[in-house]
Amino acid sequence: MWRPSRALTKCIFMAAPGPHVFLLVLKVGQRFSEEEKGAVEIIQNIFGEESVTYTMLLFTGGDLPKDTIFQYFGEAGSDIRNLIEQCGNRFHIFNNKQIRNRMQVAALLEKIDSMVAVNGGSCYTNEMFQQAEKEKQEREKEELRVRFEAEILNRRKEDEKRFAKREKLIFSQLERQRAEFEKQMKEHEELKHLQKELKIQIQEEVKTKEKLVEELERLRKSSEEKSKEKDLQMIKTTEEMEKVRKSAEEKSKENELQLMKTMEELERMRKSAEEKSKEKDLQLMKMMEELERMRKSAEEESKEKDLQLMKTMEELERVRKGAEEKSKEKDLQLMKTMEELYRVRKSTEEKSKEKDLQMMKTMKELERLRSAEEKSKENELQLMEKLKELERMRKSSEEKSKEKDLQMMKTMKELERLRSAEEKSKENELQLMEKLKELERMRKSSEEKSKEKDLQLMKMMEQQERMRKGAEEKSKENELQLMMKMNGGTGDSEEER
After folding, report:
1. What's this model's pTM, rounded to 2 decimal places?
2. pLDDT at position 438
3. Contacts 24+ apart (CB under 8 A), 77-80
4. Which of 373, 364, 362, 376 minimizes the C-alpha distance to 413?
5. N or C of the chain: less Cβ packing under 10 Å?
6. Is the dihedral of CA 72, 77, 82, 85 positive or negative?
7. What CATH number labels 19-124?
8. Which residues on neighbouring strands pair with residue 92, listed in sequence order?
């Protein structure tokens, strides 16, 4: 925006008490430019709205034909007519070819005197000019304030969008982890179901062995009592026992095949669980790296904003009060948003604790199953002691039973290893919770640093406000001294006259 020079300001002061008229000179017949259309508005911007009452249009080119003059002025509503109406229909036309004709000058002076009389004999004073300057500065301040508030609002909106985007990303990652955890729990339930089926099969085999032992014991006693009298029956009984033994061996083989399939399925599920655990750890590391990168990016953006904020300090001091009020409202909204996030995080922690409790219950159930299996193993040892009396008849069955026991021991070790893997997974979750707490602490620290920066900014704004007021007071003192010097110079010139 164009500003009056110091020379123009000095001319206004030296023309004390002030000019009686502003002559706006235009040439008839020349194209009416955009600058000439806004001439009155320019005068108002420089000297204030009251300056229009002291403005008169002076047209040169009165020696042109009347048709040309009428064509230049145009009809009502034309640009030149509107300009004349803005000046209160005050205008005068000079004939350029009658330079020595003093009558047209006298006519112009008469019109000026008439305008002065209409204005009550007053002139455009220095106070009016100062008031116009003050109003113009206020308008500029208001425009600057509106523009700066719009810029702050846009930055706030951008920050809110960026924060919402990051919040959405974090929540999506948490939701994905929750789904993976539920999937692992489902697989754990399936594993538990397989363990129950395996336990039922083992119990059925134990019952079958007990029945076989009871039957063999009964047959042995019967054969001992009637061995002398019923040798033939003993042979038949032996053959029957051989059939029963073969049938038991076949069933044992079938059970072994089923057990091998179950063990292979358990091994496959274990490997799958280990791979998923590794994938989860990798995803967790990636997420932590992404969070660290986001934190560094946020710090860099904060530094850039601080630099931009330092550059705009001169503009901020004019609109500080309004901006502070809006900033407080935005800060309250931000605090509410952070409280909502903290509430959601706390709810997530409570849900995680509930899942941990369920895991503990599951582990206790597995421990109970393991103790039951140990009791079953003790029963099998007792059964082995009873079967020592029938060693010749059950050697092959005993060897197979030992192999099954070894497989059962391996299964128990595998279950114990899976339990330790689950404990490690729980430790990883605890580490994740600690890292989340660390991130929360870093966020609070960042907020405290931001508050400290805001306090420093407030102090700097107050210091600049004091400096600005001091500069304004000095400027007013200089203006008073200048006015006194100018008044003194005017008095000296009058005395010399």
Report:
1. 0.30
2. 75
3. 79/32, 79/37, 80/32
4. 373
5. C
6. positive
7. 3.40.50.300
8. 58
